[in-house]
Design goal:
Keywords: Amino-acid transport, ATP-binding, Nucleotide-binding, Transport. The protein has 10 helices and 10 strands. The chain has about 240 residues and is an alpha/beta fold. It has a domain of about 130 residues: Rossmann fold.
């Protein structure tokens, strides 16, 4: 479904990612592991078209997208859920969700069904649907951010650090929800520092170091790798 072939990208003169090769097969959950600043978010921004690749190719269902405008990429079926959530704090929960379904705004029945799907996935959001997004707890805000991305009914969802700053119980619920979204037919590319939780639901993973991929393998291979365990699992 998604292929990055030798992708590099810069912020100004700073080379943030270099020669990135990633393959995501339809239906998979694939995780990008690495410390802050390793290049995971830059990779997402480059896939989304928010940052242009300086070299290499990005293919989505065999169609090159590395020169495509971000709004066109969303219409093709790739939706990103940013690390810092980017909610509209003064709009209520339901209004935030409806913004996520903007590309389907002329399909009223589909929007209503998508809204029901999100409320089924995150029942607390139904209870809070008339409350301002800025008044929600951190966990609820993350649910809203994921729910808003899901409203677009993406083929591929890019989830950037969904567990950051959340309590362990909420993290467990979050990853269960991500697994459910995947089982409903959405392919997931997940950037995470919580290696154990991410690899427990992923098919395979890539480990970033200093803007490059240092290691890759199946989830089981990475979980059993002593370097990965020492760096990201603490064992």
């Amino acid at each position: 479904m998604l292929k990055l072939d030798g992708v590099s990208a810069k912020y100004g003169k700073y080379l943030s990612i270099k020669d990135i090769d990633i393959d995501v097969v339809e239906g998979e959950i694939v995780v990008l592991l690495g410390a802050n600043g390793a290049g995971k978010s830059t990779t997402f921004k480059t896939i989304s078209g928010l940052l242009k690749a300086t070299s290499g190719k990005i293919l989505f269902n065999d169609v090159p997208i590395h020169q495509t405008a971000p709004e066109k990429i969303v219409q093709m079926g790739i939706v990103q859920c940013a690390e810092d959530r980017k909610l509209f704090p003064y709009m209520n929960v339901e209004q935030n969700l409806m913004m996520g379904g903007y590309i389907h705004r002329k399909r009223k029945a589909q929007l209503k069904q998508s809204l029901n799907d999100v409320f089924e996935l995150f029942p607390i959001l139904y209870e809070k649907r008339n409350e301002a997004a800025g008044l929600l707890s951190g966990g609820q805000q993350q649910m809203l951010a994921i729910g808003r991305a899901y409203m677009a009914k993406p083929k591929l969802m890019l989830l950037d650090e969904p567990s950051i700053g959340l309590a362990p119980l909420i993290v467990e619920q979050m990853f269960e929800s991500i697994k459910n979204i995947n089982q409903e037919g959405t392919t997931i590319l997940l950037a995470e520092q919580n290696a154990f939780a991410a690899l427990s639901i992923a098919k395979k993973g890539y480990v970033y170091e200093n803007g490059q991929i240092a290691l890759q393998g199946t989830a089981d291979e990475l979980l059993s790798n002593q370097e990965v365990r020492k760096a990201y699992i603490g064992a």
